[in-house]
Amino acid sequence: NQKKLKWLGFQKKERIERIQMLKDNGYLTDEFEQILKKNENLSLETANQITENNIATFSLPMGIAPNFLIDGKEYAVPMITEEPSVIAAASYAAKIVAKCGGFKTTVLDRKMIGEIALYDIIDFERAKNLILKNEDKILEMANEAYPSIVKRGGGAVCLEIKKLEEFLVVYLTVDVKEAMGANILNTMLEGIKPLLEELTNSTALMGILSNYATKSLVTATCEIDSKLLGGIHVAKKISLASKFAKIDTYRAATHNKGIFNGIDAVVIATGNDWRGIEAAGHAFAAKNRKYEGLTTWIFDEKIGKLKGELTLPMPVASVGGSIGLNPSVAAAFNILKKPNAIELAKIIVSVGLAQNLAAIKALVTTGIQKGHMKLQARTLALFSGAKDCEVDLVVNRILEKKIIINSENIKKILKEIRN
Ligand code: NDP
User: Fold this and answer.
1) Which of 112, 143, 152 to mutate to test the pocket of ligand 1 (most atoms within 8 A of CB)?
2) Using the 8-state DSSP alphabet, how is residue 320 labeled?
3) Nearest C-alpha neighbor of 87 from the set 68, 112, 114, 107
4) pLDDT tens-digit readout, 367-377
5) Which residues contact 28 (CB under 8 A, 6 or more apart)?
6) Distance from the CA of 286 to the center of ligand 1, in angstroms?
7) Using one digit for the tens of pLDDT, what is the confidence trace for 331-361?
8) Which residues pair with 68 in a beta bridge?
9) Is residue 2 pLDDT above 60, yes or no?
10) CA atoms of 45 and 40, how far apart (whole Å)
């Protein structure tokens, strides 16, 4: 009940009132309240420093999905997306899961992998043994190339070697602490490349971080009472939908796109590299040599509960890259109460699971379009030139009279309203 009161009417409030509500609920400090109220964004000066040939900055809507309960802690999750209904769907699913104890997460490890591909090798076995014999020396050299991460308690951890056709691939594992680690890994790999070439009398084709971050896996799970989903038949259909996404690639791609609707929104809000997170997730979806749906939903008849699970590589950072440079990103971290990299990864994977639940529940019940209609009408009304004060009038008339949503009809309604 306390939770209900906390966010009562949040979606119907004005923007400034929502910010106030975040503040009143303890999710925002004074400094970031002001930044959000003023809609302070990345400055042109900073933008010009971050990337090349800068001419402007680009904006996207930032919203909040409240009611996330993860490992017993409540979060209001900042999400950046241009797609209508993503934030509403995440909030809806989060609310249901919170009523059933929330999301539980596990993190097995949090390290990054980089690789060097060697070729022109005469004796693979000899080369492999030489590398392994010199492992300590190679790791030491990697750490010398990036000493600050060692000072922070991280650094190079181990080497693994694999022969792939004409290549001998050396995989370097590094504890990158709070960073995502691309620059750390790339610097280390370039540092050890000459030593590997010399030891094995081979040529290095390249040395680069791998985005297939299998040593940064995070699992989120939840158990939902089928009554909260609309009954056993709905829970069973959700589990069938998850099975279908494992076996049909056409469905798997869309199923996973829906998961990334939520994941990308938080990854972007927190200033992380969403291309890297997407690459990791889609590579992981193909880990069984077939591209599959990433979530698993099973209906447990005995207890009447639907059990959901999502495991993903989630090498997000709390520092580095452009994270410290964008005021909106700093505000997002403030709202999330400054999570470290591992806590942020747990939040993001939970959002992915929530997003998937909302999407497949809609798909196997009312269909996806019903919930989208209102939002689609809003977007199209804006496109058709409706002013802010006219949008609700247009949408209400469309829904009341069950008018087909297209720009021609919307323009007609606008004309009627204006007359
Ligand atoms: P950075 O190069 O920004 O390195 C991390 C920074 O964070 C360092 O300056 C480090 O300080 C600082 N830091 C402060 N506190 C900590 C801490 N507790 N733990 C770790 N570092 C800390 O970022 P990354 O190496 O993480 O690289 C990420 C960037 O690389 C992203 O912008 C990404 O887009 C980009 N990139 C991605 C690639 C890919 O995904 N394949 C390829 C190439 C680039 P100090 O200086 O003291 O070490």
Assistant:
1) 152
2) S
3) 68
4) 766 666 777 78
5) 19, 22, 36, 331, 334, 335
6) 27
7) 999 999 999 999 999 999 999 999 999 999 9
8) 75
9) no
10) 14
